[in-house]
Specification:
The chain is an alpha/beta fold and 429 residues long. It is 39% helix and 24% strand. The chain binds guanine and zinc ion (ZN).
């Protein structure tokens, strides 16, 4: 049975970071026709009603219909330690993250946190995440089992760490990382809406043998994505230099093992050398901007303007729990603030695109998710543009959709998410 969802509609016909706000299309009384988990039509409400008289109508009033948010870099195992005080990256990993990740050897803990994590992201309007797991295969099983149960398009991989820089109990080997990753990949990749991601945590916690093994695995399965971290903090970069004296730069520690190419996702990518920028662009790798994390852990200011103008492929992400929020609205607000500190005011259309189509494009899934268009998967959210008194009073002054949307971007949270559909099924309100 077809469902016709009515409301304001926001969708993209191009990239506003390149073409400006005109790349977006807004209808103040539009609709989205959904059937069989897919979007069948998008248009004006009256036209769709006339053309599809048998469809069940869900009228969301003046709520704004959009594609669900896509979070291109998260660590679901860090759900319970989000907002842990007072540390920068390396101390934060050792003090909070690694002890928590050890607990994922227990499948029941992994299952509990996976379920809690998806509850939290869905109420925030995020319908696709790309997550790290822990070194434990059980953590991957728990993530994919929960995503499958909820019908989500989801990406994840076993986090691999075999160097003695990682604590005992949280280390695999080059061999076991390859074998376990391959087994999990064969089990989950392409099953329903799930995708496996080859996941070396970052150069400081992998040996060259492990990076080489994972480079070989990725070469065997080139339609998988590969995710890791790059140039997040200056102390981390100095550490990489000391561990890899022969490498030209941080990126080279990955490049020499076949881990740079289309489908590679590099989280953070803040303090890049000119050679690294050029190589990343030429490889068409994705850079994932994690603004709440970059301010919370004190990492630095991502060069959105320079990298976007340079033609880099960029996604947006919470980096839960280094990031301080599960909300992509809060993440867009932080992206705005970080860009302002670099003298670039990101437009609401650019922020919204980054949180939907931009992140989908970073995951090379822009033809499936992250937009409202016929044939796309029906992951849809309805946004209340007056979800709190502060936002409501500001929105009454709005002269157009961007002025109406921007207060929600800057001040909104899960209260702004009025409804969520995953593959056409309504899941949270
Ligand atoms: N670098 C390596 N591991 C991590 C992680 O878990 N979080 C963040 N923010 N950076 C990392
Ligand atoms: Zn991360």
């Amino acid at each position: 049975m077809a469902e016709l969802i009515l409301g304001q509609v926001l969708r993209f016909e191009g990239n506003p970071m390149v073409e400006g706000p005109g790349a977006a299309r807004h209808s103040s009384r539009g609709g989205v026709l959904v059937e069989g988990g897919l979007i069948r039509a998008v248009g004006e409400a009256d036209d769709l009603r006339r053309a599809h008289p048998g469809a069940v109508v869900t009228d969301m009033g003046d709520a704004l219909l959009s594609a669900g948010f896509v979070d291109a870099h998260a660590h679901y195992p860090q759900t319970a330690i989000i907002a842990s005080w007072g540390k920068r990256l390396i101390d934060w990993l050792n003090s909070y993250t690694f002890p928590e990740e050890m607990r994922f050897a227990d499948p029941s803990h992994a299952a509990e946190i996976a379920s809690r994590y998806f509850d939290l992201v869905l109420v925030n309007g995020t319908t696709t995440v790309c997550s790290y797991c822990t070194i434990h295969p059980e953590s991957v099983e728990a993530f994919f089992a929960e995503a499958a149960r909820r019908g989500l398009r989801a990406y994840a991989g076993k986090t691999c760490m075999d160097r003695d820089t990682a604590p005992e109990g949280l280390r695999d080997t080059a061999r076991s990382a390859y074998d376990d990753s391959k087994r999990l990949l064969q089990q989950w990749h392409g099953r329903g809406r799930l995708s496996y991601v080859v996941t070396p945590r970052f150069s400081p916690t992998s040996t060259e043998d492990q990076l080489a093994a994972l480079g070989a695995l990725w070469a065997e399965y080139p339609d998988c994505l590969m995710q890791t971290h790059l140039s997040e903090q200056t102390d981390e970069i100095a550490w990489v230099k000391s561990l890899y004296p022969e490498a030209r730069d941080y990126l080279d520690t990955y490049e020499r093992h076949g881990l740079v190419g289309p489908g590679a996702l590099f989280g953070h990518a803040i303090h890049l050398e000119p050679r690294e920028r050029e190589r990343l662009r030429e490889a068409d790798a994705s850079l994932i901007h994690c603004p709440t994390s970059n301010t919370f852990i004190g990492s630095g200011l991502f060069d959105m303007d320079g990298l976007a103008r340079g033609g880099h492929r960029i996604g947006l992400a919470t980096d839960t729990g280094g990031g301080s929020s599960f909300s992509m609205l809060r993440t867009m607000a932080a992206a705005y603030e970080v860009a302002q500190l670099r003298h670039r005011a990101l437009h609401a259309s650019e922020l919204w695109w980054l949180a939907t189509q931009g992140s989908a494009r970073a995951l090379r899934a822009e033809g499936r998710i992250g937009n409202l268009a016929p044939g796309m998967e029906a992951d849809i959210i309805a946004i209340d543009l007056a979800s709190t008194p502060a936002i409501a009073q500001r929105a009454t002054r709005a002269g157009d959709i961007w002025e109406a949307l921007f207060p929600t971007i800057m001040m909104g949270d899960d209260r702004a998410i009025r409804a969520v559909w995953v593959a056409g099924a309504r899941v949270a309100a």
